[in-house]
Design a protein that fits this description.
Elements: H1 4-19, E1 31-35, H2 41-50, H3 60-66, E2 76-80, H4 86-94, E3 103-107, H5 114-124, H6 129-133, H7 135-138, H8 142-147, H9 149-152, E4 168-172, H10 177-199, H11 207-220, H12 227-240, H13 247-253, H14 290-297, E5 306-309, E6 315-318, H15 321-332
Antiparallel strand pairs: 1-2, 3-4, 5-6
Length: 333
C-alpha cells in the first residue's frame, strides 16, 4: 500500500507522456497553420489537430493551462510538422515564431467588381482569392458591422460590393479575405466618408443608393468629363419613374455576361435588371471611385433622358426618344 501513491504518479506520468507524443514522429513535412486573434486554448488545439499537427488525444490544452499560459499564445501563421514534439509547438506559439509572410502589391481599377478584384488578387499569387470573391454575398459580418457601424448600420444587404474602395494596396499573401476587405473598407472611410458627411445634405439619396447609382455611372462613363451628364440622365429617369435601362446592371445579373448585352438577355429575371425593374437596383454593381460618387450627388443640369455609346467611348445624349433613335442610327452608320 505504501507504493500506491508512487504507482499513481507513475501512471499519470505515463498517460501524460503518451498524450505528449507527436502526431507522427516520422513525418517531417511542414504545414502552415493560422491561429486567429483571440483563439482560445481549446480552439487552438482543435486547429492543430485538424491540421494533423497534434494527435487526436493530446495534452496540449492541459499543459498550457497547468503552466498558466492560456493568455500567452500569439496569433499568426506558423509552420509545424506532425513530428514536432509538444514542448516545441507550445514554445513556438508563446514566442510568436511565425512564418515570414510575402507581401503583394495589387491595384484595383475604379469600377472593379468583387469578382474582378478576386481575379486581380489571383494574378498576384494571393492564396485566398476565391474566398474573397464570396464576399459579394456575405461580406458584412457582425464584427465588421460593429467596427464600422456608421457605414453599415443601414445597409439592407450583406454584400460588400460598393464599399471596397478601389486603390493600390500592399497585402500579405496569406492574409484572410476578411483582413483584405477591412483594409479596403478602412480606405473607404478615409476617402468617401468625409465627402459624404458634407454631400449628404445635397441629395435625397442614402449613402447606399448613392453608391449604387455611382457604380452604374462608373460602368457607363468611359470619358471622365461625361460622368455628371450620364448622372443627369439617370436622375431625370428616376424623377419621371422611368426604368434606368442600364446595360451594366443586366451584365451584373447574368451568370456568364457577354461583352455586349443582347436583346434576349434583357428579359433576365433579377432585381438588378433595370430594364424590367423601375428605380435603382438593390445595391452597387461594382466599387466606384470618388469622382463617380461625386457625380451621383452632383449631376449636371440637363433635359437628357437617353444616351448611346459612340465608337470612341463617348456618348450622344438625347432629350426625346425620336432624337435617341436618330442618334442610334448615326452610330450604326
Amino acid at each position: 500500500m505504501k507504493n500506491q501513491p508512487l504507482l499513481v504518479w507513475f501512471g499519470l506520468l505515463a498517460i501524460f507522456t503518451v498524450l505528449s507524443w507527436p502526431a507522427d514522429p516520422f513525418n517531417l513535412e511542414t504545414t502552415r497553420v493560422n491561429i486567429p486573434p483571440g483563439a482560445s486554448v481549446k480552439a487552438t488545439q482543435q486547429t492543430l489537430q485538424a491540421k494533423g499537427i497534434l494527435p487526436r488525444f493530446s495534452a496540449f490544452a492541459l499543459t498550457v493551462r497547468l503552466l498558466g499560459l492560456q493568455n500567452k499564445i500569439k496569433a499568426g501563421e506558423y509552420s509545424f510538422a506532425p513530428a514536432d514534439p509538444l514542448p516545441a509547438i507550445i514554445s513556438r506559439l508563446l514566442h510568436n515564431e511565425t512564418v515570414p509572410q510575402a507581401e503583394i502589391r495589387v491595384t484595383f481599377p475604379e469600377g472593379s467588381s468583387i469578382y474582378k478584384m478576386g481575379l486581380a488578387l489571383k494574378e498576384t499569387g494571393y492564396l485566398h482569392w476565391a474566398e474573397f470573391q464570396g464576399l459579394v454575398n456575405e461580406g458584412i459580418t457582425a464584427q465588421l458591422r460593429l467596427r464600422h457601424w456608421g457605414i453599415f448600420k443601414f445597409i439592407p444587404s450583406e454584400s460588400l460590393e460598393g464599399y471596397l474602395f478601389p486603390d493600390t494596396y500592399h497585402l500579405f499573401i496569406t492574409a484572410s479575405p476578411e483582413t483584405v476587405a477591412e483594409a479596403m473598407v478602412n480606405r473607404f472611410e478615409q476617402v468617401v466618408v468625409p465627402f459624404w458627411l458634407t454631400a449628404q445634405k445635397e441629395t435625397k439619396l442614402t449613402l447606399h443608393e448613392t453608391l449604387t447609382l455611382a457604380s452604374i455611372i462608373e460602368k457607363e462613363a468611359q470619358k471622365p468629363e461625361e460622368r455628371a451628364v450620364i448622372s443627369s440622365v439617370f436622375h431625370n429617369r428616376l424623377a419621371k419613374g422611368m426604368p434606368l435601362a442600364a446595360d451594366p446592371t443586366v451584365k451584373y445579373a447574368l451568370e456568364r455576361p457577354s461583352k455586349i448585352v443582347y436583346l434576349d438577355q434583357l428579359s433576365v429575371r433579377s432585381p438588378y435588371n433595370t430594364y424590367k425593374r423601375r428605380g435603382l437596383p438593390p445595391g452597387p454593381i461594382c466599387n466606384p471611385g470618388l469622382e463617380s460618387i461625386k457625380a451621383a450627388v452632383y449631376p449636371a443640369q440637363t433635359n437628357y433622358f437617353f444616351f448611346v455609346a459612340k465608337p470612341d467611348g463617348g456618348h450622344i445624349f438625347s432629350k426625346t426618344w425620336q432624337e435617341h433613335q436618330r442618334a442610334r442610327q448615326t452610330v450604326v452608320r
